[in-house]
Amino acid sequence: MTSAAAHDYSGVPQGAPVYELTNVSKTYARNQVVALQDVSLTLRKGSFTSVIGSSGCGKSTLLKIMAGLIPPTKGRVILQNKPVTGPRRDIGMMFQQATLFPWKTAAENIVLPIEIRDGKAAAKKAMEAAHDLLEMVGLKGFEDVYPNELSGGMAQRASICRMLITEPAVLLLDEPFSALDELSRDLMNMELQRICREQNATAFLVTHSIQEAVILSDDIVVMKPRPGRIAEVVPVDLPRPRTLDMMTTQKFGEIVDRIRAMLDKGEDM
Ligand SMILES: Nc1ncnc2c1ncn2[C@@H]1O[C@H](COP(=O)(O)OP(=O)(O)OP(=O)(O)O)[C@@H](O)[C@H]1O
């Protein structure tokens, strides 16, 4: 990575399909639970998509399949024109907990994916990029700090850098800020939006928060349970860049209400 800012991961044109899921189904063999049924979804280059739905409707299963961590029982998952058959270097992931290694500094944690993939020499070379990324997320000066000296929000900022260091084509985000207090979470979401715009990233977020989904997304995938499937994909036509004060607008409220009504209907949807 030469520059952390304004970097385009793939050269794929804005709006072109990056991820394509076709009739993806998953039945867990152990208990025969149909976790997903016929999920079809296209993520376009530079778009932000959230998935929301009640507990057990298959959100995590969907994310794991997209990440190549588990195979679907049926259906196709294509990323950048190649089937996803296992974990891939063009997929970036971020989880609820920062999971930084306590014995490594912030910068060492960030280059770890490179070290695992390409060895120590490559990790050393990537240090400059790690420093650029830390600066981008407002952590300049924290390069040599250990995780126990970072706040929860700072640790998640470092995790964002670790996800970006391998220049993934797509960012899969599993409730990355749900462990933070509400104020930090709102600020981190705005930061996430800025980073996605700067990096022209394609992002997919699992969340339980309707507000979070609305403020961040171009599209919200509303799922329903038993079996887990897509109820509706709701477009969010609020202007970009989004700002936190948009959360008080009538339009924002209307979209939130619409999604809440869908979720309340639950299985009748
Ligand atoms: N490894 C597994 N083996 C068997 N069943 C599973 C497994 N993982 C998930 N399930 C089942 O599949 C269904 C979907 O689970 P999943 O975790 O994908 O839902 P979710 O929407 O992410 O839920 P939550 O919001 O609570 O995290 C549930 O009924 C769950 O019990």
Automatic annotation (TrEMBL):
InterPro entries: AAA+_ATPase, ABC_transporter-like_ATP-bd, ABC_transporter-like_CS, ABC_transporter_ATP-bind, P-loop_NTPase. One of its GO terms (molecular function) is ATP hydrolysis activity. Keywords: ATP-binding, Nucleotide-binding, Transport. Residues 19-250 form the ABC transporter domain. The keyword Signal does not apply. Pfam families: ABC_tran. Belongs to the ABC transporter superfamily. This is ABC transporter ATP-binding protein. It comes from Thalassococcus profundi. The lineage of its organism: Bacteria, Pseudomonadati, Pseudomonadota, Alphaproteobacteria, Rhodobacterales.
